[in-house]
UniProtKB/TrEMBL annotation:
Protein name stated in the entry: Aldose 1-epimerase
Pathways involved: Carbohydrate metabolism; hexose metabolism
Pfam families: Aldose_epim
Reaction equations catalysed: alpha-D-glucose = beta-D-glucose
Family matches, as NCBIfam families: PRK11055.1 (NF008277)
InterPro entries reported in the protein's UniProt record: Aldose_1-epimerase, Aldose_1/G6P_1-epimerase, Gal_mutarotase_sf_dom, Galactose_mutarotase-like, GH-type_carb-bd
GO molecular function: isomerase activity
């Protein structure tokens, strides 16, 4: 039985504004709270984190994710704000890959390539929601065989848990009845200043990775794993995003994607006890630390945001107005057989965990 928390959110989001029918399925807004006053609002349309209120250095709750205050804006055109990316996050070159000797062709929704699961990716699907407590939500979805061209009926379950230590834990589980590929992440756009009109360029970023996967001019990985040493991609020591980019603003990798939009090869060996990355806002004092059992992390600095869309409080999304920290297997892995595999076979269970830990520094 579906339990829906309809009480008004501290964020001033109204649950009535998130009620709609999408392909015959009902959308809702769910609100998670902990004993520290933190609050996370999530819609079952794409499993999107709509709002995340975290305390700043003065104890004031700030909304630190970009999003909209109604379901219609999410439906207006495909977007990734706060959503579950599936079946395969990020890019697949030419929308084609080999799986057990068979050529799989999926929908191309990024020029000649596929991104975030194709034209029927999970960010555009309605999940079934079950709120188990004030601090836990489970979303589930059955992705049919052939959806966006991917093989297999895939059952997925995503559990969001807001702890009293101000951590949002996202657990992903999936199983299939036919060999397929799975690579899931959350695509929240964080602005830890709480002010979307302020860029994240002066935020301090740390990534526990000595290597990254460079891309070509279409943002498709070349297959190389390259050292970050002496490049703008070295965040092994906490560094402001602006100063890192200014090390070599004409670096071809920066020019290709107008900023950071790359996958880092994490040096955590999948250990959830070791911080994979962190970002800190000197303005608010809020620090976000990321933990994951995934081998990679995509860092994206909102390079394509261009003020054409307006979010909560009617504030336009501006270039470099947010940072995404997407835990994942590497982009285009189905076409890179030497990289950690994303193949899921019948009888196996896909499991992935991402922890977004908020603190004050």
């Amino acid at each position: 039985m579906q339990k829906i928390l309809d009480s008004k959110a501290k964020s001033d989001l109204k649950s009535a504004n998130f009620k709609a029918l999408v392909n015959g399925d009902s959308t809702h807004l769910y609100v998670l709270r902990n004993t520290k006053g933190m609050e996370v609002s999530i819609t079952n349309y794409g499993g999107r984190i709509v709002s995340l209120l975290a305390p700043d250095k003065n104890g004031k709750l700030l909304d630190v994710v970009l999003g909209f205050d109604n379901i219609q804006d999410y439906l207006a055109k495909p977007n990734s704000f706060g959503a579950i990316m599936g079946r395969v996050t990020n890019r697949i070159a030419n929308g084609t890959f080999l799986l057990n000797g068979d050529t799989i062709k999926i929908d191309k929704n990024n020029g000649q390539h596929a991104i975030h699961g194709g034209s029927k990716g999970w960010r555009q699907q309605v999940f079934r929601g079950s709120q188990l407590s004030d601090s836990m939500l489970v979303l589930s979805y059955l992705s049919p065989d052939g959806e966006s061209g991917f093989p297999g009926n895939v059952k997925v379950k995503v559990r969001y848990t807001l702890t009293n230590e101000n951590a949002l834990i996202i657990n992903y589980e999936a199983e299939t009845d036919k060999s397929t590929v799975i690579n899931l992440t959350n695509h929240s756009f964080f602005n830890l200043s709480g002010n979307p009109q302020k860029t994240v360029l002066d935020d301090i970023l740390f990534v526990r990775a000595k290597h990254f996967t460079p891309v070509d001019s279409n943002a498709i990985p070349t297959g190389e794993i390259r050292s970050v040493s002496n490049t703008p991609f070295d965040f092994t020591v906490p560094t402001s995003i602006r100063s890192a980019i200014n090390r070599d603003s004409t670096h071809k990798q920066l020019v290709f994607v107008s900023g950071l939009d790359h996958n880092w090869v994490l040096d955590t060996d999948g250990n959830l006890e070791i911080p994979a990355a962190s970002v800190y806002s000197p303005t608010s004092g809020i620090k976000l630390t990321v933990f994951s059992n995934e081998p990679g992390l995509q860092v994206y600095t909102g390079n394509t945001l261009d003020k054409t869309q307006k979010g909560k409080d009617n504030i336009p999304f501006q270039k470099y107005g947010a940072i995404c920290l997407e835990t994942q297997h590497f982009p285009d892995t189905p076409n890179q057989p030497t990289w950690p595999s994303v193949t899921l076979n019948p009888g196996e269970q896909y499991k992935s965990t991402c922890i977004y830990q908020f603190s004050i520094e």
